[in-house]
Write a structure and sequence with these properties.
CATH class: Alpha Beta
Order of helices and strands: EHHEEHEHHEEEEHHHEEEEEH
Helix content: 25-40%
CATH superfamily: (Glycosyl)asparaginase
Largest sheet: 9 strands, mixed
Radius of gyration: 18 Å
Structural class: alpha+beta
Shape: globular
CATH topology: Glutamine Phosphoribosylpyrophosphate, subunit 1, domain 1
Strand order of the largest sheet: 4-3-2-6-5-1-11-12-13
Length: 317
């Protein structure tokens, strides 16, 4: 038994390679880190890693995390600047008994001291997006906060071990130093090999209000299926936010239990995820919620072609 599930179509290529590795007996930890790193390295994904969208002052601050479901060890970085593959730094930090969460300059200094490569992460294409968004939002008096798609990947290996990893450039036009849910244990990710794992994407400020990933794993431990746990947590959190806070941002999650069963839930119209298991061929699904239950179906070739064209399209300036 093995399995891997990830948020968003952008994870497909990394998941495909790691699914093959898991099927061949590779450990979950390395599989999820490699799959996330593949997303970080691709410059056309503007919400993760190299080419990620910048803060309001034009700097790319990256967040990432890793958690080992066997030991519950985790590592995370926040506001990391100009270091390649933040997820690999987070993975290395998970091996530290203390100081396993580092942010800002301290995170950068530690990464460099450990031999991680310095790399300018802001690309010209990302700056073109930045200038275009400014014209469409700030120049018109509209909110600039858009573009917050975290890649989160869960792996289950043939030895019954589980791991999860996340990476994001965070909320577009965020304030310098802002952290969302992605590097926060229990909110953006949680993993326990005895039960399962979950990871989230969306508006971090709202996802953190429900300790979303931990709550999904907790409900699976109490007997819910992954799909039941995902749907119930997302629906209840959205209802609570609407009644108590007056609004709710984008909330999307994926999860998997120790048996390789998976679930996904969302409150938006365009959430996609990627999954492969010993019994489920590699598939990109598109999910939508209908009457408090999430329904999903495989995307077709037309959808895939439109996606590829969209992310590579020239940016009109």
């Amino acid at each position: 038994m093995w399995g891997i599930i990830a948020t968003w179509r952008m994870a497909l290529e990394g998941v495909a390679a790691s699914a093959t590795a898991l099927a061949a007996g590779k450990a979950a930890a390395g599989a999820v880190v490699d799959a996330v790193a593949a997303v970080e390295d691709f410059p056309f994904y503007k919400s993760v890693g190299y080419g990620g969208l910048p803060t309001e002052n034009g700097e790319v601050e990256l967040d990432a995390a890793f958690m080992d479901g066997d030991t519950l060890a985790f590592g995370a970085v926040g506001n990391l600047v100009d270091i390649a593959n933040p997820v690999r730094v987070a993975h290395a930090l998970s091996r530290q008994r203390y100081n396993s969460v580092l942010v800002g300059q301290g995170a950068r200094e530690w990464a460099l001291s450990q031999g991680f490569a310095a790399k300018a992460m802001l690309t010209e294409r990302a700056m073109q997006h930045y200038r275009k968004r400014c014209r469409e939002t700030l120049d018109k008096g509209l909110s600039p906060y858009d573009g917050h798609d975290t890649v989160g990947i869960i792996g289950l290996d043939c030895h019954h071990s589980m791991s999860v990893a996340t990476s994001t450039s965070g909320l577009f036009m965020k304030k310098r130093g802002r952290l969302g849910d992605s590097p926060i244990i229990g909110s953006g990710f949680y993993c326990d090999s005895e039960t399962g794992a979950a990871t989230a994407t969306g508006v971090g400020e709202d996802l953190m209000k429900g300790c979303t990933s931990y709550e999904i794993v907790r409900r699976m431990a109490q007997g819910m299926t992954p799909q039941q746990a995902a749907d119930s947590v997302v629906c209840e959190l959205e209802d609570k936010l609407m009644s108590r806070f007056g609004r709710a941002g984008d909330l999307s999650v994926v999860c998997m239990n120790r048996n390789g069963e998976f679930g996904a839930a969302t409150n938006i119209k365009t959430f996609s995820f990627v999954v492969a298991t010993a019994s489920q061929p590699l598939t990109v699904f598109r999910a939508e919620r209908i009457r408090e239950k999430t329904h999903y179906q495989p995307v077709d070739d037309e959808w895939m072609q439109a996606y590829a064209a969209r992310i590579r399209a020239p940016i009109e300036e």
